[in-house]
Amino acid sequence: MTEPILSRNFNVPNAWKLSVAGPRGAYETARKVLLAMKPEEIVQTVTASNLRGLGGAGFPTGKKWQFLPKDNPKPVYLVVNADEGEPGTFKDRYILERDPHQLIEGIVLSAFAIRSHKAYIYIRGEYVEPYQNLKAALDEAYAENFLGKNIFGSGWDLDLVVHRGAGAYICGEETALLNSLEGGKGFPRLKPPFPAIVGLFGCPTIINNVETLACVPHILKNGAEWFANLGSPGNGGTHLFSVSGHVKKPGVYELPMGTPLRQMIYTHAGGIRNDRALKAVIPGGISAKILTAGEIDVKMDYDGLKAAGTMLGSAGVMVMDETTCMVKMLLVAAKFFAHESCGQCSPCREGTGWAYKVVQRIYSGEGDLRDLDTLLKVARNMEGRTICVFADAAAWPIQSYITKFRKEFENYILNHKKAGAVHG
Amino acid sequence: MANITIDGKPYAVKDGITIIEAIDEAKIELPRYCYHPALSIAGNCRICQVEVEKMPRTVIACNTRVAEGMVIHTQSQKAKESQAVVLEFLLANHPLDCPVCDQSGECKLQDYYMQVGLYDPKFDDVKVKKTKKAFAIGPTIMLDQERCILCTRCVRFADEVTKTHDFGVFNRGDHSELDIYPGKTLDNKYSGNVADICPVGALTDRDFRFKMRVWYLGSQASVCPGCSRGCNISIEYEKSRPYHLKEERIMRLKPRENPEVNKWWICDEGRYGYKPVDFGRLKTLKTNLNGNTAPFDWKAALEEIAVILKSAHPHRWALAASPEYTNEELYLQKKIFLDELKWNHVGFKAPGQEGYEDSFLMKADKNPNSAGAAQILGLEAGREVLTPIVEKAKRGELEGLFIFAHDLAKIYGAETLALVRKNVKTIIFEGPNQNATSDAADIVLPSASYAEKDGTFTNFEGRVQRIRKAVEPLGGSRPAWEILLELAGVLGMDLSYARPEFIFSDLAKENEAFGGLTFKQIGPAGRVWNKK
Ligand SMILES: Cc1cc2nc3c(=O)[nH]c(=O)nc-3n(C[C@H](O)[C@H](O)[C@H](O)COP(=O)(O)O)c2cc1C
Ligand code: SF4
Ligand code: SF4
Ligand code: SF4
Ligand code: FES
After folding, report:
1. Which fold has domain A238-321?
2. Is the CATH number 3.30.70.20 carried by domain B135-205?
3. Is residue A420's pLDDT more than 60?
4. What digits encode the pLDDT tens for the residues A186-236?
């Protein structure tokens, strides 16, 4: 395993305190860069590093920053997505809780790069300890003038505000997040316009994930080339993988982009609990299409998983052994999406609820074989017709579980059919 | 300009407009629920899917802008399928209570199902129950949350047009509910419009509730007589079963789009102000002259009036004309009373009757044709307000009064009317509705309401607009222009017109403000006159 970068302080006690993080190098890069580099140079370096957004979509970060309008008279905002709502994903919380100064340093550098004087962190409401440590770190950073006016004597100011979410998954979608931050209902916005042009309070805004911004100090410290070489082609750096489920050693693993999935499960996470057989893996949070045991020879990066018909998403790797019931898995996923749909778009609002009802019915023994086709139809019809990609994310589990485990679904329906079930 | 192709035909459209705007300009039908040209884009219903060549998926027409060379299909297999599947989602939890829904027959769920749906429904589960069904959210509107498709048109109307911020969508997912904010009632001056813009039967008009199936309605394009704005309306009346509901023929008024006058809206006062067309009407001729109360016909009545008027001294009679009458009728009054009979005590404006006004539609002058009346009758000083005439009448300086529609008791009080009655020998009243003045008059000529005749009104900015006959004059009433022409005839004047259209042409030739306009030239948006 390579030298840990993002996770280097995770197991250092009290690294969330400046007294511990400071001597371990926190803010050294920011101090140097702010006094020596121009914003454009930072943007260029980040672009060259092949850093891709680690919140799920994998959009090249430098390229996103370059979408900001030139000669813009309005304030520019940097918004940090710390909502981490994707089931199976718990990497950002490690940064927030165990090494918040790493994030704040990344924010200072990134805000400087995009010429923003005001940044917001939107943190998942349920993250109590991460919030407390982040808040403490923020106060320390202000006290040391790593935030506030004339940072490091560079003449440049930055205000950083932490805002706590109220528990809606959809508020992790960047434009719903903006509405929520503005005090409105967490409804994703129509695009275009994109936030880089019309974002928070109608001003140009860059939204990045916690981990994405935490990478920035390391890139600026060690160079774009170094970072790019850590990963696979076009997928720079390492990534924090949240590995959960039926493995012997679940946890957050920092591994280079492109690490083979098989190696991740069997070497890093210690293999399947009780040495049972692997049944399936969800490689990128609940929204990602499932992989069967036979499909795990894939590289864990954006391009590798795309080629395998699924996605890296939030890098939440959920491992299921042979005892897992796929009908129940789909029930859990369908319930989640029905519960979390914001309800704006007809296909998503009605489709997620519809799908959940059908799966519930199957699960309780009142299903019929033709329900499987109804589910596939509902999923197909939701896909690609909505304001945000939530509806697609809701469709993919349905499609992939049923197509890849169709026999199991059919047997379940036939074997569980309740005597006298009226349906079907 | 961008050159685009829609359904195989080329169009040159303005740069940067949305596909739906281009489609509407081209008069192509495309389903839409959330889109409304007056409101911001919500893009939430997702039904307006079109296929754009070179794009991987269908896109929504309401939030996609045209680009040079774009090739758009609204009817292709791909586009239609995309529209149909969205409709199926919208109907999945819909209660389908069409048999008891007032919207039935003008519902966009029904329309689009016939247009692009016609699928074999697959939804087989229990529908979501919502909290409010048949729930009055204010004096005018009934809410049914289960019928609501959450298009947020009403929300945006209240946020953007009336700025009363009445509505919100509560909860989320398929439990989302449209409601008004807690503790609020929907009670603003334009509330009725939400029933019009609601594409389904979720917001319905309490006034129209269960009155009639919409397919029994006839519709006539007219102008609201409620104030000097002159909002364009459709008069919707019972078409096939006259007198089915007691004497009520007018069932409702709906706004008619006119970008120059009222956009898509009308106020509640105007919307619900149609009752006097069917109620409180004068239906028979009446005379108390010389104790003769025997029924008498129009010819006899008008001849009797002619005799009186011919022998009347022009300074001892006065005309109370009315700004509720059409330009054509006011022109005939001018011809008869001013030009022929040479009266010079003339007024038309009731003082102190100004009402509510705002910066949106409603005007303080609650008459539809004050501008026309002033232009036709009242240019010289003293020929406007009724008060000098009434003062003279009170003092016994007048022998007779010819009053159109006004109620002196309402304007000046019952005592004034009593005094006038006592001191004026002959009062002739002509009007559509009964009031204390008609009760006190010696001769009453029942005339048609605005909904029963053709003609024009001139609104506050000098816009001449057409009203049209929706229903027959009630009982024995007749359009005032007809009555006036017949009166002119018995007075021996050479005035005859077959239709108001021809009266208007002469008026427009004679009165320079109307500048030679004809009915044809008025056009659907009305026409502002050339007053300097
Ligand atoms: C339904 C939905 C939920 C999302 N939740 C999160 C989240 O919790 N955290 C996050 O960083 N990104 C989330 N995203 C992705 C964000 O919209 C956005 O792409 C990301 O914050 C951009 O940052 P990045 O470029 O640094 O990855 C979500 C997207 C969708 C569609
Ligand atoms: S796709 Fe679903 S979650 Fe996204 S905006 Fe539409 S309804 Fe909301
Ligand atoms: S009540 Fe009508 S207008 Fe309002 S959101 Fe529902 S369907 Fe749309
Ligand atoms: S604003 Fe005036 S003209 Fe328009 S509907 Fe109301 S009363 Fe009628
Ligand atoms: S009309 Fe376009 S999405 Fe509703």
Report:
1. Ubiquitin-like (UB roll) (3.10.20)
2. yes
3. no
4. 999 999 999 999 999 999 999 999 999 999 999 999 999 999 999 888 888
Pick the CATH number of B2-91 from 3.40.50.2300, 3.10.20.740, 3.40.630.30, 3.30.390.30: 3.10.20.740
pLDDT digits (tens, 9 = 90+) for A18-57: 999 999 999 999 999 999 999 999 999 999 999 999 999 9
Beta bridge partners of A123: A82, A164
SS3 A43: helix
Buried b vs exposed e over B162-173: b needs ≥16 C-beta within 10 Å? bebebbbbbebb
| Short-list A393, A399, A395, A407, CA closest to A88 | A393
Q: Which fold has domain B217-277?
A: N-terminal domain of TfIIb (2.20.25)
User: What pLDDT, in 10s, does the model give residues A149-183?
Assistant: 999 999 999 999 999 999 999 999 999 999 999 99
Q: Give me the CATH code for the A326-419 domain, please.
A: 1.20.1440.230
Query: CB-based contact (8 Å) between B128 and chain A?
Result: yes
A387 Cα–ligand 2 center, Å: 6
| Tokens of residue B392, six digits | 């003279």
**How many Å lie between the centroid of ligand 4 and the Cα of residue B452?**
19
Residue B236's contacts (CB-CB under 8 Å, 6 or more residues apart) are B217, B218, B219, B250, B251, B252, B253, B254
Within 8 A of A385 by CB-CB distance, chain B residues are 46, 49, 57-58, 82, 85-86
Q: Thinking of the domain A18-230, which architecture would CATH place it in?
A: 3-Layer(aba) Sandwich (3.40)
Average pLDDT over residues A235-250: 95
Nearest CA in chain A to B48: A385
Intervals of CATH 3.40.50.740 along chain B? 286-528
Of A168, A170, A387, the CB nearest to B44: A387
CA distance B476 to B282: 8
Q: What is the pLDDT of residues A333-372, one digit of tens each?
A: 999 999 999 999 999 999 999 999 999 999 999 999 999 9
Q: Write down the ipTM of this complex.
A: 0.93
